[in-house]
């Protein structure tokens, strides 16, 4: 199905996708959530900031008593937070045809989680790291195709929504906030996947995950999750769509130490200059 057709039928597709996530959510809470995590390739998130609650257990609606692991509160955030928001925003969109940006942001969070989870499982097998089980790789890719595929459709609809690109560049603080959102999302996904990043190989693999994250979103959709919330898009300096080479240059330039501070320069960040790209605000 062509992306333009997806946009034309958005009033039908968006509710269907949200209904799918609703069914998945209730399927998880109606069973052993952690068993379903293993079956569907969905993993719980650890909140290390809540380690002072470790001696206790938490009562959650429908779920029951949730254990507190050695790393803090073990929380199936992917379902308990993102899925209910999908439900509410889906209903809001169905009634008023608004809220697509927020729905797309949640879709981007889920898709990023599934993408990095599948990539992580492959890396664990290739480099014989902890958790390298073939069945987990298979389940993570099934989860990526089904759950990530539904989120992918939402992002395609947002991508093909008619917009007007402004000629003015976003403020420096706007870009910093967008970067901070992406960084927080990436860090929490890595923590959720319990990726072993110690040693030289572990750190290189962590950088590889960062490359996958940025390249995937900016090449296919021309935005990252943070840019969705702030109405930002990546384009070439001549206004055309960035190709693979340009996006790859942007992505690898981000690995330069302290490069993230360079976009406080009015001429743009170093990754903008090296790739001859720019970030512009859009008007829906």
UniProtKB/TrEMBL annotation:
Residues annotated as transmembrane: 12-30, 79-95, 102-123, 135-156, 176-194, 200-217
Domain RDD, first and last residues per copy: 170-264
Lineage: Bacteria, Pseudomonadati, Bacteroidota, Cytophagia, Cytophagales
InterPro entries named among the record's database cross-references: RDD
Keywords: Membrane, Transmembrane, Transmembrane helix
One GO CC annotation: membrane
Membrane topology listed for this record: Multi-pass membrane protein
A Pfam family it matches: RDD
Main subcellular localisation: membrane
Cellular compartment(s): Membrane
Protein name: RDD domain-containing protein
Lineage top rank: taxon: Bacteria
């Amino acid at each position: 199905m062509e992306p333009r057709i997806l946009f034309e039928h958005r009033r039908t597709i968006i509710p269907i996708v949200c209904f799918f996530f609703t069914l998945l959510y209730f399927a998880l809470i109606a069973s052993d959530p952690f068993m379903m995590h293993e079956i569907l390739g969905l993993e719980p998130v650890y909140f290390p900031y809540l380690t002072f609650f470790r001696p206790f257990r938490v009562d959650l609606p429908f779920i029951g008593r949730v254990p507190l692991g050695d790393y803090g509160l073990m929380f199936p955030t992917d379902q308990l937070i993102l899925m209910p928001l999908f439900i509410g925003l889906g209903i809001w969109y169905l009634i008023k045809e608004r809220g697509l940006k927020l729905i797309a942001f949640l879709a981007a969070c889920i898709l990023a989680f599934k993408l990095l989870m599948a990539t992580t499982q492959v890396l664990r097998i290739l480099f014989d790291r902890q958790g390298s089980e073939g069945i987990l790789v298979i389940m993570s890719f099934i989860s990526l195709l089904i759950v990530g595929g539904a989120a992918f459709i939402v992002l395609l609809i947002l991508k093909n929504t008619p917009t007007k690109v402004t000629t003015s560049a976003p403020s420096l603080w706007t870009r910093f906030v967008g970067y901070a959102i992406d960084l927080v999302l990436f860090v929490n996904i890595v923590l959720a996947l319990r990726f072993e990043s110690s040693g030289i190989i572990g750190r290189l693999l962590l950088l590889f995950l960062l490359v996958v994250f940025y390249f995937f979103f900016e090449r296919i959709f021309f935005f990252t999750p943070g840019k969705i919330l702030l109405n930002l898009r990546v384009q070439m300096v001549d206004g055309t769509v960035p190709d693979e080479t340009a996006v790859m240059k942007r992505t690898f330039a981000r690995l330069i130490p302290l490069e993230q501070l360079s976009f406080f320069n009015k001429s743009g960040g170093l990754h903008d200059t090296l790739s001859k790209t720019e970030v512009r605000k859009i008007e829906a």
